[in-house]
């Protein structure tokens, strides 16, 4: 389950970047095609055909047949440019819709994984029983509201991807110590090398 989450997060973090992994080569190709088509469309729109001034002297020089041929060639060139622009617009719209569909599928898959993970953690790692604390003597009970292991992981995960240059989170009273040790012991979280009161999620996606 954790491995599936890593793979899903990798896809989300790589969308829109210039370098993607081989497993997402198709999405990379689509992005490159969008960039190429956008540049090509912009270039076509900037070009202005040079029009020949059809005054009386030009008409006399060209003659009727030459004029008809020139007109036909200009109309053909205009039709070609318009068709090219329409095709580029259609290609851009199609590729854009494909990207939106892929993004939606990835997000739906991520949400499904998070729900599954949440259910698993709630079943196997519920909130600690506060009565256990009350039985211990000479220990000041914290007034902070303890959070679930699922909520702890969400905090660490959001910090990791929202602030990648500083992914460490300050350990608060709402973090149940046994859950912190569980994450550290299994290599899911790491302590700050200089500040033991801060932890971060292991960067499995790197």
Q: What would your notes on this structure say?
A:
- This protein is mainly α and 206 residues long.
- It has six helices and three strands; from the N terminus they run αααααβαββ.
- Strands 1-3-2 form a three-stranded antiparallel beta sheet.
- α1 runs antiparallel to α3 and α2 (25-46) packs antiparallel against α3 (56-124).
- The longest helix is centred in the middle third of the chain and has 69 residues, at 56-124.
Rg for CA atoms = 31 Å
Shape: rod-shaped
What share of residues is helical? Answer: 55-70%
Q: If strands are numbered along the chain, what order do they take across the biggest sheet?
A: 1-3-2
Q: Give the rounded overall mean pLDDT.
A: 76
Structure class:
mainly alpha
- Tally the helices: what do you get? 6
Q: Low-confidence stretches at least 5 residues in length (pLDDT < 50)?
A: 16-23, 131-140
Q: How far do the termini sit from each other?
A: 18 Å
How much of the sequence is in beta strands?
under 5%
- The count of β-strands is 3
Compact summary:
With 206 residues, the chain is mainly alpha-helical.
Protein topology:
Layout: H1 2-14, H2 25-46, H3 56-124, H4 130-135, H5 149-162, E1 169-170, H6 177-185, E2 189-191, E3 198-201
Antiparallel strand pairs: 1-3, 2-3
List key phrases describing it.
206 residues, mainly alpha, three-stranded antiparallel sheet, rod-shaped
């Amino acid at each position: 389950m954790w491995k599936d989450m890593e793979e899903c997060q990798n896809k989300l973090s790589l969308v829109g970047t210039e370098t993607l992994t081989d497993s997402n080569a198709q999405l990379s190709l689509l992005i490159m095609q969008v960039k190429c088509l956008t540049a090509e469309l912009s270039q076509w729109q900037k070009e202005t055909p040079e029009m020949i001034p059809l005054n009386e002297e030009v008409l006399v020089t060209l003659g009727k047949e030459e004029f008809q041929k020139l007109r036909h060639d200009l109309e053909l060139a205009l039709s070609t440019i318009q068709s090219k622009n329409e095709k580029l617009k259609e290609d851009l719209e199609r590729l854009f819709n494909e990207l939106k569909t892929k993004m939606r599928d990835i997000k739906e898959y991520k949400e499904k994984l998070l729900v599954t993970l949440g259910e698993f953690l709630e079943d196997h790692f519920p909130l600690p029983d506060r009565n256990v604390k009350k039985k211990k003597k000479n220990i000041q009970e914290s007034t902070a509201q303890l959070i679930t292991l699922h909520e702890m992981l969400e905090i660490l995960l959001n910090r990791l991807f929202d602030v990648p240059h500083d992914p460490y989170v300050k350990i608060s009273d709402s973090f149940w110590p046994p859950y912190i040790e569980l994450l550290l012991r299994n290599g899911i979280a790491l302590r700050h090398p200089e500040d033991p009161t801060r932890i971060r999620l292991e960067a499995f996606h790197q």
